[in-house]
User: Fold these one by one.
Assistant:
Number 1:
Amino acid sequence: MSQQPMKLRDQLLLHDHTMEANKRRIDDSDYFRSYSDVSVHELMLNDDRRTRTYQMAIMRGYKYFYGKVVADVGAGTGVLSMFCVHAGAKKVFAIEASEMADQISEITKANDMQDKITVLYGKAEEVELPEKVDVIVSEWMGYFLLYESMLNSVLFVRDKWLKKLCLTKDGVMFPSHASLYTAPLASHEEFKERLDFWDCVGRPYKLNFSPMKSYARKCFTKHIHVTSVDPSTVVSRPAKLCKLDLLQLKASVLDDLQAEFCLKSFGSCEIDSLAFWFDVEFPGNVQLSTSPDCQPSHWQQSVIYLKESLKVEQDTDIKGRISVRPCAQFSRNLDVSLQYGIQDKVYNQRVLMDDLGS
């Protein structure tokens, strides 16, 4: 039988899918290449809170690991895989798509763990595990919680390789939950300094660059900025935007994560930015928080400088909604739509979480 010619609609769909797949490969290539650089791993291992909290969570939760099979998604230097061995894991599959995979092999040999840790070099979506696993560990969190879209890979491994222990109970995820928060800031110092720069920079030359100030604000408000927030500038209790259950979460939710918020101001001030941070929870009641009130971490906080400042008084309600989705041009970046305001004044702003902000 002769093959029917492909309809135009089908041709266009195939073309779109091919273009999307090619774009994703380019995204992934750049992403994994960046994790082959030693400086990234210096930064993460130097983050004592991050590393010790994972160690404490795994050791306190040893009952989940003793005699079990574990997948470490995005293993990096293999530090979490080795913590799992310390907790009694029978076998750990260290999945790593960057050139660090070769280094994990050397590190596990140096720690006499090569019989317990098997390194799988490749993307989490493409590697084949010899068996299903009881536990998944991963340090997948990015700036603004979801930057770099690594959570999608963790969920893929969960759906394909995590055991279902019975009809009502699945295997275990470390961490098990993740939450994202926001709170308003009054006179964020870095934002103010960068704007005031244009009032001052021309004085030694008897020149006036102040017209640049409005343009600078326009540029700064296009991107999410990673910085340390002074807790004294936070002027309301935080609002929890979401809490993700990593055993139940559907990957499709991450295509467009939406939330509404209401923040009640502590006093009279001018709000010029919103801060965002996250926490993750582990089985056994261990938590890792990146709140401004906690000891600093390499994640710091993510800040959106507002296009329009808000003048508030005590107990003013600041209401808004936010939508977070992968960026169309580069899917590991984030495209964030923000609506915020007080009373009848409502503003809309679109910002990117990308390398310019981070």
Number 2:
Amino acid sequence: MDAQRLKDSFGQVARQGDAVALFFYADLFVRNPHLRDMFPVGMSAQRDRLLAALGRIVSHVDDLPALVPFLQQLGRDHRKFGIVAEHYPQVGASLLATLRYFLGEDWNDDLAEDWNSAYSLVAKVMNDAADDDSLVWPAWWNAQVIGIERRRFDITVLRAVPDRPLPYRPGQSVAVEAPGRLRQWRYYSMANAPRSDQTIDFHVRLIDGGPVSTVLARNVQVGDRLRLGAPVGSLTLDADSPRDVLLVAGSTGLAPLKAIMEEIGQRPVPPRVRLYFGARTADALYDLEDLRKRAAESPWLTVTAAVSDEDPGGAFEHGLLPDVVARAGNWSGHDAYLCGPPDMVEQTADRLLRLGVPGGRIRFETFGGDR
């Protein structure tokens, strides 16, 4: 298997953009009509995820230590769609048909062998991980909504309780399927450390046109049922680190960092934690009251709020979060955890690197706009 040949051929195909995913799914459903019901009616987000996953797999095809954990998580995560071993050859056949179509005269026997070998490895790793996971955990958890706080017209805090224990680490996320949105899953981070009563909080921001966020933020009622996928994500606390902690949250990117904050608070001697919480306007600081209450009760915690699009009149810091954090001091002795809009996270990470924080001590997660 020639890794560079795989990368070059995929780069050539990927230049065709959304047409690649359109062709792939059309071929898959023509060959296997029974698979269509496993997917949502609207496929735009699904097509984006397919191309993103393929791009990541191909870019790491010569770096198995990085690729295998991603594939294992992908295999476990696909259990909630009902994917089983017999589906992998069907998907593989449509993938090769798609590559052959878009490569045209550049497709040859060597490329076919390379892609067959690569896909066989991918399918084996994913299927083995799914099989192992099925021995321990369900494909999904059913959960009931037991609390709703609509903090703003576009931000809602939900509390749900799963039908069985859902083990996760603070900072992780689960895929959520909302009422009336069958097979449309979107990822939301747990906003609390695990509790003895098994309840989980989610912070939901309404995304314009988002099929799942619209239901969760505006329509869901107490008593409604959700489905939750298996926990995923690596934005988790380095429990062995003796260093102080910097948390930087933009909008509902607060959720996983609040869970990490709670985990830190459970330590016998918590490190000092500086939490920066930012939004465009003051009324979008939807959880500030609770954060300030926690800070007043926790001498190890300092909370700083910032707004960027209006003059806070001295009540908060003024400016973009990367600027506010950068001007606050030297963070080289801290572990940093960042979550929020991609631009904010990228710029904050860059500032921290320039301020002397090693890249290995900056953990981050971003959220997109298709929720």
Number 3:
Amino acid sequence: MAHQLPLSSASSEADLHFHQAALLALLYVRGLSCRDVNKLLTHVPLARMVTEPECLQCYGVKADIIGALSALNMANYERKIQAFKHQGIDVIALGTSAYPELLAELPDAPLLLFCRGNTQLLKRPQIAMVGSRSASLAGKRCAQEIAQQLSATGLIITSGMAMGVDAMSHQGALMATGQTVAVLGTGVDICYPRRNKALRDDILAKGLLVSEFVPTTPARAMHFPRRNRIIAGLSLATLVVEAERKSGSLITAELAADYNREVMAIPGSINNPYAKGCHKLIKEGAALVESAKDVLQELGFSAQNGLYIKSEPTYCEDENSILRHIGYEPTCVDDIASSAEVPITELLTQLVDLELEGLIESTSEGYVKTGGG
């Protein structure tokens, strides 16, 4: 079930600026978590939270938090937002049309996403690929090959830019379309690990860097589990390539399952300690994956005439067709979902199918119908 917030769409640039600044201010209030704010926003409008915080008392908010909210100087946070934009950092706020629909479903959805690169990728169907930093040579090669093949079909590869499987997954996507999303456990202006600077620069040029942490935030151990929930939350499915039984990759997979997303894993040798986590997931019901084809089929695609399309295509030009809601001018995913009244998770899968059939094309502004549609 989607996590709905009663936040009105910003009607002007000033409204959007205040909306972003208000959420930024909440990040600095000690003792107020993303989960707390998401829950409160189902009852209280954002503007009222920061201008009339005493109203939160009836929702069990502690006096010290209300006091901190009362002391907020919103002008300071509006200046911070403006400074981020001057640094080339896009700020995407929860409750606005630019915010990824799948991520908004999380009970602890990030209040803000700080981005550098192509933010349109956040609206495209994504597959999370995660695994060990110390993966075997075979595991790294497997990650790169599958990522490259999946990227070539139009899916966006999302990972955490760590060494090992993460880095090779990004690299595979860069070798295909270049469209990959790196979710960071630092500020978006920090390169971590430093050995991945060249990779980071390549992603910045072709893909997207994204973080919920304000710029200049350094790497801390507690940041990475929070980053993992974003990786899982953005994606239709999570594929684990190699992982130990106790690892961050398995945490990401567990989060994906909690979010009702697909979980997949690649098996390995019984003598490989980095395969044991994957074997555990498969025993618990994760889909066993040996190739990119397996991933596509698990998502409902099958190979026909060299393309991956739905086993039972239903896309004809009738009143129930997704195609009817896409024109020859770019249409964004949000507008298609609203017009077609289709859940975003289902819609993203169908859009990939239509693109593979050559009926639509993806642009920086949305989807357009081709001559074949």
